[in-house]
Amino acid sequence: MSVRARERVRSVDLVPSVLAGKIAPIARLLSRAEQGADEVLPALEEIYRHAGKAHVVGITGVPGSGKSTLLSKLAIRLRGLERRVGIVAVDPTSPFSGGSILGDRIRMNDLSGDPDIFIRSMATRGSLGGLARATLDAVDILDAAGYDPVLIETVGVGQDEVEVVQAAHSTVVVSAPGLGDDIQAVKAGVLEIADIHVVSKYDRADANRTITDLKGMLTLGAHAGTGAHAQSSPQATWKTPVVATSAASGEGIDELVDQIDAHRTFLRESGTLRQRQRQIAQRRLLKAAEDLLRDEFMRQQEGDMARIISDMIDREVHPSAAARQLIELVRKAGDR
Amino acid sequence: MSVRARERVRSVDLVPSVLAGKIAPIARLLSRAEQGADEVLPALEEIYRHAGKAHVVGITGVPGSGKSTLLSKLAIRLRGLERRVGIVAVDPTSPFSGGSILGDRIRMNDLSGDPDIFIRSMATRGSLGGLARATLDAVDILDAAGYDPVLIETVGVGQDEVEVVQAAHSTVVVSAPGLGDDIQAVKAGVLEIADIHVVSKYDRADANRTITDLKGMLTLGAHAGTGAHAQSSPQATWKTPVVATSAASGEGIDELVDQIDAHRTFLRESGTLRQRQRQIAQRRLLKAAEDLLRDEFMRQQEGDMARIISDMIDREVHPSAAARQLIELVRKAGDR
């Protein structure tokens, strides 16, 4: 079959091969999902029906926290346990996403060539808004293809990226000692979304101070209970652990695997899994609706939309009233 | 009139006093707008019709850049020119927003007691999404009340805060020497949205390096032309100036006032004002539509919305299809 002919394969026809775990079709569907053409939607709908089995783990932390290194060590360890590991990297500073320094590249190479580790990096430039959608589609594809767990790596700053992490069942927040006095998770606004904290670079002398600071902060937070994922019922309480890891010695990686598994078990057995699934679905639904509005908006630039905007500029219509007109337009477009 | 009776005044009945520039009604309407109850909407619609006259200037920069100090010096200078200055502060680290250190508090006090400077700080905690809407409503209120210019102070990180700055006609990005090697505007992702750059703390020895770096970066950017506000027509080109200021000596404040006025004149005379108004209106429209969806979503938790989410969790409906159902629900709610 020629390259041209292969390119003409409909996305929806790739789905059976994706579900069978075949590498090339998975890669092709991932690319098409990222481009986000309408043609791929029936395929994604089919994929979505088959997804929902994998444990989705978000791994976040500021640049320099050592999360990329941790991620590669974690993936290697999970492979040692015979698990098929999917990785979606949305961190522009990550070696998985096309960064960075030579050392990181070598670590990434530790993972390449293994068909049971699938690494997909997402472009973060120029796709604000679309990024969250494309990332979650990618997670669905790897999930449906039988990868479990699926790890999402993202830098823990920016609303879009927090949204991505909030799509995970379990969220690991990585902090490193010596990146300034403040707790990085607090600075990045992700303290509350952590199910598991990791302090990386445990071989460093100042790591213990970071661990102590973090535990102190968590004790305060336990009383506040304002986290997006805060557990409301007292009988189902997850005590956020702080795991110290060292990429050099490999220390703490096993404990991290255990804690991720423990959190998965906790979600299932406490009945909070359904609750978290609802939160994830709610956010995703809202995001999809916003994306629809934005897309329709872009298509409508020359038509009714231009009139609505002119009315706004001329101060004849308030933005809220204009927004109702926009929603009406989008609905009509959906009826066509 | 008792306090109880005063509280029962309808928001829409406050509008004439607001338009007349009366302080207490302005403050009251601002509070109600921030709370965002449905009751205030008719008042905001009326306010919106009377707004659109003020020059809206966004002032942004990372914490520590000295933008709060600059803002107070700028406001005092503008008062010296007999202008009525409105300030909306959405920076949680700003003394205007209830920060910070004693020195900043004293600077803020320089401005208090003058009825022709109105300072409004917006709560940024717990109002993600609602923040941008509330801030723009506050700008409208001060605008309609006759304040001109209206200055928006925001920390230049986070999607929500960038959105706020993008609602300004002119955007001032403040950088300080010695906050790390990188250009702060680049780090914060706001280089492209600057109409005017300020390098604060010009009395510092390393200020010249920051100025040189920034000018070099701008020369590169002039060729790239990727900014949200990039001017497309060659005959209407704004050359982004770099203004050096010193809060200690007051140096550069007059030049900053001149540059802000020059940019206002440029927008008017080049015909790009309308273009920028379109961009601002577009963003605000989209944001308002998203807020409507979110609000309706919150109201619908127990009804049809819960069913849609359950269908998603059960993998029966893809998020995109579910989003169309959500938009249909919101539209129906609007018809009621």
Count of the domains of chain A: 3
What's the architecture of the largest domain in chain A in CATH terms? 3-Layer(aba) Sandwich
- Percentage of residues assigned to helices of chain A: 40-55%
* Strand order in space, largest sheet of chain A: 3-2-4-1-5-6-7
Distance between the termini of chain A: 37 Å
Verbal overview:
The first copy, chain A, is an alpha/beta fold. Chain A folds into 3 domains: 8-50, no CATH class; 53-270, Rossmann fold; 300-335, no CATH class. Helix content of chain A is 52%, strand content 10%. Chain A is built from 14 helices and 7 strands. Chain A has helices at 3-7, 11-19, 23-35, 41-50, 67-80, 102-109, 130-144, 159-165, 184-187, 207-224, 253-270, 272-299, 304-313, 319-335; strands at residues 56-61, 85-89, 117-121, 150-155, 170-175, 196-199, 242-244. Chain A has a 7-stranded parallel beta sheet, sandwiched between helices. In chain A, helix 6 links the parallel strand 2 (85-89) and strand 3. In chain A, helix 2 packs parallel to helix 4 (41-50), helix 3 (23-35) runs antiparallel to helix 7 (130-144) and helix 11 (253-270) crosses helix 12 (272-299). The longest helix of chain A has 28 residues, at 272-299. Chain A is globular, with a radius of gyration of 22 Å. The first copy, chain A, starts with a helix and ends with a helix. Residues 98-107 and 223-235 of chain A have low confidence and may be disordered. The interface between A and B is large, with 50 and 50 residues.
